[in-house]
Backbone:
């Protein structure tokens, strides 16, 4: 912290007036600067590992100005000013904007500097959290798409699946004239209220109760959920009947009926909730009727 503070001090003490002779004419000030201390904009940019355009911009906004201007209006920098450039670059690397650096320059104090650093640290923590969320979302989407790249869409199977985390919404409300889209919008709104930091782009699914599966009530899902690696709820590890179909959002009665017949024919029975997912959706497929639906129905061997 002390080293960074010392670096900041070298950055913001840049308003000194330098004096030197130029064809017999002195710049205002009290001391003369030797010729070797001054360099052109181009040479100073190379020395400071930046560009002339950047230096012109710093001068324009009052962040760092040349030490000397000749009668020909050419700008010259003192080589000692390179420490100011390095300090500006350091602060930019910490996430400070040029405006913030300029404000800090004109109102500097140890207390002010610590306050600004503390605020910037919180900002960086927020960015880290956002990037971690984005990385988790990418991994989730990547996993879902890869899982169906070579799937046989017409094939049905019974397979043991590992536990999967999810963020489960409240029970859907279909009272009055509310339909599945009303329930879906309520799900998004409720999730945003409960988890304001949550990205709403996580893959969505819907859950049907065991009773709905047994009675064939597939029109309205009981709940919606997000696939989420840090979700508090879980799809349990168990045997599932698995089937696929092409189609848009909403129930696919043909797939449900085909799977229920398959479950019965192979000596199994429904034992738990069913889950409908969309591993290929509007992000990966152009036509809604070509989304890929995956239906998971929890089962067990039929008991006598």
Residues:
């Amino acid at each position: 912290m002390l080293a960074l503070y010392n670096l900041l001090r070298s950055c913001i003490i840049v308003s000194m007036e330098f004096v030197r002779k130029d064809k017999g004419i002195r710049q205002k000030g009290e001391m003369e600067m030797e010729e070797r201390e001054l360099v052109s904009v181009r040479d100073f940019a190379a020395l400071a590992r930046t560009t002339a355009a950047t230096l012109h911009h710093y001068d324009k906004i009052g962040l760092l100005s040349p030490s000397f201007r000749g009668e020909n209006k050419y700008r010259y920098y003192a080589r000692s000013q390179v420490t100011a450039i390095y300090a500006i670059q350091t602060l930019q690397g910490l996430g400070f904007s040029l405006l913030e650096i300029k404000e800090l320059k004109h109102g500097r104090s140890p207390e002010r500097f610590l306050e600004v650093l503390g605020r910037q640290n919180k900002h960086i923590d927020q960015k880290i959290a956002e990037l971690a969320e984005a990385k988790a979302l990418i991994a989730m989407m990547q996993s879902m798409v890869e899982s169906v790249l070579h799937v046989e869409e017409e094939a049905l199977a019974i397979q043991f699946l590992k536990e999967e985390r999810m963020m489960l919404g409240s029970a859907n409300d279909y009272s009055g004239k509310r339909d599945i889209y009303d329930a879906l919008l309520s799900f998004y709104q409720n999730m945003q209220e409960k988890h304001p930091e949550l990205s709403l782009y996580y893959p969505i699914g819907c859950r049907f109760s065991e009773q709905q599966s047994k009675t064939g009530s597939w029109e309205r899902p009981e709940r919606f959920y997000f696939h989420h690696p840090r979700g508090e709820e879980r799809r349990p590890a168990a045997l599932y009947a698995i089937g696929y179909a092409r189609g848009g959002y909403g129930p696919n009665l043909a797939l449900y009926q085909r799977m229920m017949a398959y479950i019965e024919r192979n000596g199994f029975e429904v034992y738990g909730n069913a889950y409908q997912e969309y591993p290929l959706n509007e992000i990966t497929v152009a036509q809604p009727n070509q989304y890929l639906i995956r239906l998971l129905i929890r089962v067990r061997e039929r008991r006598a």
About this structure: The chain is about 40% helix and 20% strand. The mean pLDDT is 83. The longest helix spans residues 110-146.
